[in-house]
Structures are given as structure tokens and as C-alpha cells.
Write a structure and sequence with these properties.
By secondary structure, this protein is an alpha+beta fold. The chain has a single domain, classed as 2-C-methyl-D-erythritol 2,4-cyclodiphosphate synthase (60s Ribosomal Protein L30, Chain: A). Helices cover about 30% and strands about 30% of the residues. It is built from 5 helices and 7 strands; from the N terminus they run ββββαααβαβαβ. The strands form 2 sheets. The chain has a 5-stranded mixed sheet with strand order 4-1-7-5-6. Strands 2-3 form a two-stranded antiparallel ribbon. α4 links the parallel β5 and β6. α1 runs parallel beside α3. It catalyses: 4-CDP-2-C-methyl-D-erythritol 2-phosphate = 2-C-methyl-D-erythritol 2,4-cyclic diphosphate + CMP. This is 2-C-methyl-D-erythritol 2,4-cyclodiphosphate synthase. Homotrimer. Keywords: Isoprene biosynthesis, Lyase, Metal-binding, Nucleotidyltransferase, Transferase.
């Protein structure tokens, strides 16, 4: 393989995030407040979908992970709206000549049910990324009552992004 060959003008990244449930009456998912019997334990707002999206964006360009850019030890991010993280990551991409071609996010939980909120989530992510709605997918799955998500102890999300040259 010739390492001096030009790299194709696309990059793929994937991200994953998880948070335990805690006190509260809602959770944030893809920038949307979703009513729930509890909240999440997190330094920021604990939006697993946006955190996974950030890690996918950062990973596609080998720029570290969300913890490098927004460390939980930094009080500036205590209770922070994760939309700020996505906007920062998007700016890093643009500075380097990239943009998100499409994003695919899967939320993994038994509850809350994501379906009734999926369109609002897609709209929020599309707005944050500055891309068309038909380039953002939000879907959900359960873990069939297995593991920590199956026991309803927490929530997880995974994301995949395709970056294209801007």
C-alpha cells in the first residue's frame, strides 16, 4: 500500500456513550427534553445521543474524544447543554475542511420510548450540524431486558458519521 497516495475525500467515525439513571424527571436525548421517571448521572446534561455523535465526529478525524475536549474535571461543563459540544465539534470539522455528510444515531434503552420524539431529535441534530433533515437518522432499540439497559439502570447510544470534504 502506498502511504503517499491521496486519501479519499471521506472519513467515517463511530461513537458510544452511556449514563446511569439518577434523580430527575426527564432526560436529554439528541437535544430534546424527554419526560422520564428519572434523570441521568452526568457532569453535563448527560445527553448520550449527542455525546456519541461528538465522539463519532472527533474520531473520524482522529481528534480524541469528548472527554479530551470537555473534561468532566472542568467545572465549566457542569450541567452544560451538550448542543454546545456538538457545535464545537462541528466547528473543528469545518476548520479542517470537512462537514458531516450524514449521521446515524441509535439510542439503546427500554424506556423512555424514543419514537414519539424521534422527529424532533432529527430536526435538532440537523440544525446543529447545518445539514438537511434527510441526512440524520435517529432510531432506538431495546436490549431485550438484558444488561444494565435491560434492567433500566441506564441508557446508551451509538453514532456513526460520514464526513465529506467541504
Amino acid at each position: 500500500m502506498n502511504s503517499s497516495a491521496p486519501f479519499p475525500p471521506v472519513r467515517i467515525g463511530q461513537g458510544y456513550d452511556v449514563h446511569a439513571f439518577g434523580d430527575g424527571d426527564h432526560i436529554m436525548l439528541a437535544g430534546v427534553q424527554v419526560p422520564h421517571r428519572c434523570g441521568v448521572l452526568a457532569h453535563s446534561d448527560g445527553d448520550v445521543a449527542l455525546h456519541a455523535l461528538c465522539d463519532a465526529m472527533l474520531g473520524a478525524l482522529a481528534l480524541g474524544d469528548i472527554g479530551v475536549h470537555f473534561p468532566p474535571s472542568d467545572d465549566r461543563w457542569k450541567g452544560a447543554d451538550s448542543s454546545r459540544f456538538v457545535s464545537h465539534c462541528n466547528e473543528l470539522l469545518r476548520e479542517r475542511g470537512w462537514q458531516v455528510g450524514n449521521a446515524d444515531i441509535t439510542v439503546i434503552c427500554e424506556r423512555p420510548k424514543v419514537g414519539p420524539h424521534a422527529l424532533a431529535m432529527r430536526e435538532k441534530v440537523a440544525q446543529l450540524l447545518g445539514i438537511a433533515l434527510d441526512r440524520v437518522s435517529i432510531k432506538a432499540t431495546t436490549s431485550e431486558k438484558l444488561g444494565f439497559t435491560g434492567r433500566e439502570e441506564g441508557i446508551a447510544a451509538q453514532a456513526v458519521v460520514l464526513l465529506v470534504a467541504a
